[in-house]
Amino acid sequence: MKDIPEISFDDHDEQVSPRPEETGFDQVVEAALSRRGFLGGVLAAGGFATLGSVLPSGARASGARFPFAPIASSTADAVTVPPGYSARVVVRWGDPLWSEGTAFDPETRGTAASQALAFGDNTDGMEIFSHQGRTLLVVNNEYTNRSIIWGNRGDDAPNADDIEKGLLAHGVTVVELAAGDDGWQIVTYSPYNRRITPQTPMDITGPARGHDGMKTAADPSGTRCLGTWNNCGSGRTPWGTYLACEENFNGYFSAEDPDHAVSPALKRYGVSAKDWGYGWAQIDERFDVSKSPNEPNRAGYVVEIDPRNPDSTPKKRTALGRFKHENAECVINTDGRLVIYMGDDERGEFLYRYISDGVYAPGADTDALMENGTLYAAKFHDTGAGEWLPLTPETTGMSKAEICIHTRLAASAVGATTMDRPEWVTANPNGPELYCALTNNKNRGIKPNAGGDLTPVGGPNPREANKFGQIVRWRPNGGDHTADGFAWDLYVLAGNPEKLDDTRRGSENVTPSNMFNSPDGLAFDSTGLLWIQTDGNYSNAEEFEGQGNNQMLAGDPVTGEIRRFLVGPRECEVTGLCWSPDRRTMFVGIQHPGERGNSHWPDGGASVPRSAIIAVTRDDGAPVG
Ligand code: FEO
Ligand code: CA
Ligand code: CA
Question: Whose CA is nearest to atom 1 of ligand 1?
């Protein structure tokens, strides 16, 4: 296909809205230099061990053992798992979810009508729910690769049906699973199966509901919007609902006039006259930002979905803020308040915490818990201490609704720490401890973020032009998730110890046999192992030589040891992880295999590559986490 960008969402955003190269550059350089001594000392003295000493070792959670033998990196166009484990495909992009759907047609790659009844594309965050003896899988379908979904068109431009097919491949899929002789399969007659798409009606809740900035011609009340898209990581509430997190929502808006200038507030989120190639404004005017300038304010939220009620209206929870949400990790604090940790995945953006005003009581009405509460942004100090900065009218000069719509501006106003692209956050089940993947940030110490905030080297972001990424963890003071302060350290600095000698070799727990780059998905299993999924450079060349395709590893939070468990097929990202209720199956998402044209996974031969969810089991039937 012509005109299909081969660049990432982030690079697209920087192209259409260049970062201010010169702003405070001298300060950035000064900060970088002063921090280099810090990192050099840490690595020279043993890296992880020294950083680990930030936290009192006696308070560490109890250990977990690895139940598998580590595997080598791979460039094969296949899923590789350790001996004694098996992986099989459960559902692929385009598989019909209902018996009246049509089987995926590799010639046409489907139509809008077939896609409406089929599993969406590019699987991402997912959760399993048990309901009345049924097993319901809820999964995000983040985006589409135009070169694949429209690949049948050759050099011809996509027609209106192609564009609608792409649109309908986005959103969320709810599908019942049942275990048969061949393992887990989708139940195509289930009344719970559902596609939630960019066209599904949703309620806007929380402080931004009804605000002028949320009103459009189609919805003058600012209370009801259509759809969700670019849903990245997931979350689950203690009351059994699913959280779909809207990430790169901006890349779907464009303007007929290529010179149309958007407001500074929209520019902070990368909204521009140019979309990422999806063409949605061609079939729906609300995606033309010159015609519907408030429509982008109605995306970038966490959406709550009740999978137990297929007729329920999803709720956009504006109280959780508007940014490029990765996932939403919910914990119930000892006092009963709901605390949600969330990353904003863009270079130099922030890490957030939400605390509900009310307390959770099983069986009681939970609707207000994600409507009334306070957002905080994290500030990290080089000492190993950190603090949560409240985003309130007093601290930001913004109204409560404005804070929820223009959350990035609010966090900038309080001086939160610019981060190396915060991805998933996960809570250790063995104690009040959180982990967040900071996937990479080539602008660290080089350029400010989109709002002009400086990105000095230091703290949990210790490497300039960071290509490999790291995982930061923190413990709330006193074990209280609502405490103002926390203590942090780095669990791992990814790198390549085989090829590189400087800080890019990574921390001590990175070795030639487990190395990786760009940690993204993170989830603890019930045994306390930390699972790490990657979405990084899969060239297997130069500084990434030896790392192979994207992969999934497991880490012991106590010893720091990391082992490679799974390698994905070519050009994929491994993302999304959940377990069957009996813990004997681990579901893993394989996203965008062959995004650059070099995979035929999962069907092999000359087939079209298709994003899919796989089920990983042990051959002896034992639990897998
Ligand atoms: Fe959709 Fe930040 O990954
Ligand atoms: Ca991700
Ligand atoms: Ca990603």
Answer: 232
